[in-house]
Amino acid sequence: MTDDPPRCAWAVSDPLNRAYHDAEWGVPIRDSRELWEALMLEGFQAGLAWIVILRKREAFRAAFAGFDPMKVAAFGPEDVERLMANPGIVRARAKIEATIKGARIWCEMQARGEDFAAFCWGFTGGAPIQSPGHGFVATTPLSEAISRELKRRGFKFVGPTIVHAWMQAVGLVNDHQQGCFRRAPVAALA
Fold it and tell me: Within the chain, where are the H helices?
């Protein structure tokens, strides 16, 4: 018998998943850089289990200059090759190049006076959406709309499934399951 509180089913089996679930997942992020970092990491997760990215997250941060979009936007071909040789990250050229391009888009938005956080939270009216918590869906009409807009702006690896996972992670939607001990505390952060 365990004294562990009830959690979302995906977070039960691995200690790192549990720690991430208990401290970070679903907590609303309002910082533009952090929202961008989370979106880029979700893109790297495409085709993989999230635990792979969690285990490599600190290596990603070191490799991508702390996910400082201004620094990443300045990366060139030599940086792509450096990253391709880094065993600490997911070495997928298309995802690496998409992250660099995403940094450039983020910087262009900032230069136009468009804050990435305001852009993201504008889709939810500035407040997290409280899902019913009866199970997970892969996409929603909102994740499809955000995906379309991100793609229109030139972002890559931002399909509706990736966007929905990102929305859950950064608290645009509170998708903690009914009965999960984090559901009510995360809802209170709205």
Answer: 15-23, 32-45, 50-63, 69-73, 77-84, 93-111, 116-122, 141-153, 160-170, 183-188
